[in-house]
Amino acid sequence: MAKLQLDMDLECDFELYGIATHVGGHRLAWELNRLFHWELVYDRQLESLCKKTGVLVSTHIVYRYKEVEEDIDIRLVLNRVPEGCLTLGQGPNSLDYLLKVRSGIVDLKSVIQTIRTSKLVTLATLLDPNKSGVLEAMFELE
């Protein structure tokens, strides 16, 4: 029996950034709060399951800031844990955190430039959510 594979990109209403740093999540959240005047706080743990077996592979801490009036929703997700990464591919696997930004007023260059001013961050880059391997996980955060 022939298999049909759908090749489509889901429409994302958010930007996804990758961040490499040597500090813990609470310290990075504090730094982003300082830089952007956000109020990121611990939200929950995101569970990553094996697609074939459904067995829990890893858990990832999520920090969140939401401003309803300005339609801003920010999520800082711990990507790299000892059990594995949310992202796929060699490049994204080296990123410690993923920053999901949903806002109508985001200037992509200014977000990256502002993050790069921090002495705690060694790398900040814009990721393609469709190619990062975390699209399902990012939609799960909704």
Notes on the structure:
The chain is an alpha+beta fold. It has one domain (15-140). Helices cover 25% and strands 37% of the residues. It has helices spanning 25-36, 90-93, 108-116, 129-132, 135-140, and strands spanning 15-21, 41-49, 56-67, 72-78, 80-81, 84-85, 97-102, 121-127. Strands 2-3-4-7-1-8 form a six-stranded antiparallel beta sheet. The longest helix is centred in the first third of the chain and has 12 residues, at 25-36. The chain is globular, with a radius of gyration of 15 Å. The model has no long low-confidence stretch (mean pLDDT 81).
Percent in strands = 35-45%
Average pLDDT level: 81
Spatial arrangement of strands, main beta sheet:
2-3-4-7-1-8
Question: What's the total number of strands?
Answer: 8
Termini distance?
Answer: 36 Å
Can you summarize the main beta sheet? Answer: 6 strands, antiparallel
Low-confidence stretches: none
Number of individual domains? 1
**Global outline:** globular
| Fraction in helix | 10-25%
Q: What radius of gyration results from the CA coordinates?
A: 15 Å
Helices and strands, in order, run as EHEEEEEHEHEHH
Number of helical elements = 5
Class by alpha and beta content: alpha+beta
